[in-house]
Write a structure and sequence with these properties.
Blueprint (H helix, E strand, L loop, with lengths): L19 H17 L6 E2 L1 H7 L6 H16 L3 E3 L6 E3 L1 H8 L1
Antiparallel strand pairs: 1-3, 2-3
């Protein structure tokens, strides 16, 4: 026997899964810039971040920006300066780009 729609138990919504493609696209934007400027200690300034990444983001990528930056930092490819925006390419990042 099927219950009428008003007596059915409502389930909680499933956890929203993040589309991984936007995050990968954002990470690729950062690494593309570093590949053009490929040397250990290369600094990506706030202006570079705005011009080369933020200005090119679509809505989905904008949501993934912080996660992409955190993932690049956790993997050791980049480091963040004290201002939280200026990025520095690490030796591991150079090795990653050159492979």
């Amino acid at each position: 026997m099927k219950l009428p729609h008003y007596k059915r138990i409502k389930t909680s919504p499933k956890n929203k899964t993040l589309d991984l493609d936007p995050k990968k696209e954002v990470k690729d934007m950062f690494m593309k810039w570093f590949k053009k400027n490929n040397k250990v200690g290369q600094i990506m300034t706030k202006q570079d971040v705005v011009e080369n990444v933020i200005a090119k983001l679509d809505a989905k990528q904008n949501d993934a920006l912080e996660q992409a930056m955190n993932e690049l930092k956790r993997s050791g490819l980049i480091e963040t300066k004290e201002d939280g925006v200026t990025l520095v390419l690490t030796q591991k990042g150079v090795d990653f780009i050159n492979n």
